[in-house]
């Protein structure tokens, strides 16, 4: 019996497979995304072309501010979305916004597949790799909501963090407020400038984490302007994918 469900060679076609009972198949990562209309560039978690492997989206509908604030009235909808993704056969579940962290614990308890709802889940690993004198710069869509209450839900605190809210940037407004025209070049330059200035101002910064699922398209520019490791939703999702779907190593001896 092949429990992985991976068909990687012609010989694999002769095996017996155990598959989930769902109307589609082959989706490795399930992504819970809020029903919001705004430009989603390649690299955005809500843009399927970001990934080199199949993902399956599940829509939830509420105001983004409710997610920022951890409104308990939206919890049931998020849990239901996770259960539906699990039933449809995904190997792991992600949230397409860092503030899904409010519900990390409850959602992970509700399903049997791994759940990493927020890019903030990477913070313990990032801090482990840095000397204690170094801090992590977090670029957040809503800095005021990235407080100790939210961090506490992940077992974290703000002691080794420098948090910068980028939701007020003029170039970020189309994403923040749901407009349909985005000056991508302006946003890329502004984010790079902000990160570069912060690193100069705070030499103790040793790494950068992008909280927002809309920011990975700008990770390259941020790294170019700072020279530092940049973590985002995609570094996390790729890590999870490689854990839940292993492939044999082929090479030379």
Tell me what the structure shows.
- With 253 residues, this protein is α/β, with parallel strands linked by helices.
- Helices cover 31% and strands 15% of the residues.
- The strands form two sheets. It has a four-stranded parallel β-sheet with strand order 2-1-3-4, sandwiched between helices. Strands 6-5-7-8 form a four-stranded parallel β-sheet.
- The radius of gyration is 19 Å and the shape is globular.
How would you summarize what this structure contains?
With 253 residues, the protein is α/β, with parallel strands linked by helices.
Write the layout of secondary structure elements.
Blueprint: E1 29-34, E2 55-60, H1 64-69, H2 75-87, E3 92-95, H3 104-110, E4 115-116, H4 123-128, E5 135-140, H5 148-152, E6 161-165, H6 173-176, H7 184-201, E7 205-210, H8 219-226, E8 230-231, H9 233-244
Parallel strand pairs: 1-2, 1-3, 3-4, 5-6, 5-7, 7-8
Helix pairs in contact: 7-8
């Amino acid at each position: 019996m092949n429990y992985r469900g991976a068909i990687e060679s012609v010989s694999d076609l002769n095996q017996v497979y155990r598959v989930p009972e769902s109307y589609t198949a082959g989706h490795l990562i399930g992504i819970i995304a809020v029903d919001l209309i705004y430009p989603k560039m390649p690299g955005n978690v809500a843009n399927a072309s970001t990934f080199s492997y199949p993902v399956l989206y599940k829509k939830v509908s509420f105001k983004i501010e409710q997610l920022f604030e951890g409104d308990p009235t939206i919890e049931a909808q998020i849990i239901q979305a996770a259960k539906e993704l699990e039933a449809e056969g995904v190997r792991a579940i992600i949230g397409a916004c860092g503030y899904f962290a409010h519900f990390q614990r409850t959602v992970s308890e509700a399903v049997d597949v791994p759940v990493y709802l927020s890019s903030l889940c990477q913070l313990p690993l990032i801090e482990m790799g840095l000397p204690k004198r170094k801090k992590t710069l977090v670029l957040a869509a809503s800095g005021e909501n990235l407080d100790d209450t939210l961090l506490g839900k992940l077992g974290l605190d703000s002691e080794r963090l420098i948090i910068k809210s980028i939701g007020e940037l003029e170039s970020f407004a189309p994403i923040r407020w749901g407009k349909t025209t985005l000056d991508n070049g302006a946003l890329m330059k502004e984010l790079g400038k902000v990160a570069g200035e912060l690193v100069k101002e705070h030499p103790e910064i040793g790494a950068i984490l992008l909280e927002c699922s809309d920011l990975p398209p700008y990770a390259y520019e941020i790294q170019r302007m700072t020279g530092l490791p940049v973590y985002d939703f995609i570094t996390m999702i790729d890590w999870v994918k490689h854990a839940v779907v292993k492939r044999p190593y082929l090479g030379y001896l």
